[in-house]
Amino acid sequence: MDALIDEDTDPLGRSVARLGRKIRALRRDQGLTLVQLAEATGLSHSFLSQVERGRARLSMSSLFRVATTLGTTQQILLTEGTAPAAGGTPVVRRTDDASAASPGGGTVRALAPAGDRPFDPMEFTGTSREPGPYWAHDEDEFVYVVEGDALLDLDGTLERIGPGDSAFYRAGTRHRWSSADGGPYRLLVVKQRLARDAG
């Protein structure tokens, strides 16, 4: 679910603001108005304005629509919304992350700053037993359970996975996950990054 942000009280306010600025820059680079982006994504003009000003956080599904319209991926937008490493260090601090809301009231956050690399690591958290919509994309993906018990649905085949369990699935595999027992879970997800056409 998309969420409104209060930068004064939300510790992720700065990362949300960075993500909003990145979306605004990409939109302007492509010569799109907010109204055009709203029409293309099915999101409201006023909500996207709040996103660009760092006053609202996109859900993962909304971020997917925005990223697709702007010719990128939600993972790249999240990593490019992550704070640059201070002093050139490769360390990303928990307080420097960029995040979006994942289905079931959880979050997804980038675990690496912007950069050219063959994969994007992310952390997904949640508590909902409702799996939400299926995802399918052009990249291979690996998932590792850090804590909690999750239910992994791969094209209708269900697997209960717990701490230390992992799974790998190929591009195009419909997938989704949820809490296996209503308790919190945390997943490390590593998604392949495909080369994008420059033009």
Q: Can you tag this structure with a few keywords?
A:
single chain, 199 residues, alpha+beta, 6-stranded antiparallel β-sheet, 3-stranded antiparallel β-sheet, 5 helices, 11 strands, 28% strand, disordered N terminus, RmlC_Cupin_sf, DNA binding, DNA-binding
Integer-rounded radius of gyration: 16 Å
User: Quick check: average pLDDT?
Assistant: 81
For the largest beta-sheet, the strand count, sense and barrel status come to: 6 strands, antiparallel
Q: What is the distance, rounded to the nearest whole angstrom, between the alpha carbons of the first and last residues?
A: 33 Å
Uncertain spans, ≥5 residues at pLDDT below 50?
A: 1-11
Percent of residues in helices: 25-40%
How would you sum up the global shape? globular
Keywords: DNA-binding
Protein name: XRE family transcriptional regulator
GO molecular function: DNA binding; DNA-binding transcription factor activity
Domain HTH cro/C1-type: 23-77
Précis, in short:
This is XRE family transcriptional regulator. The protein has five helices and eleven strands.
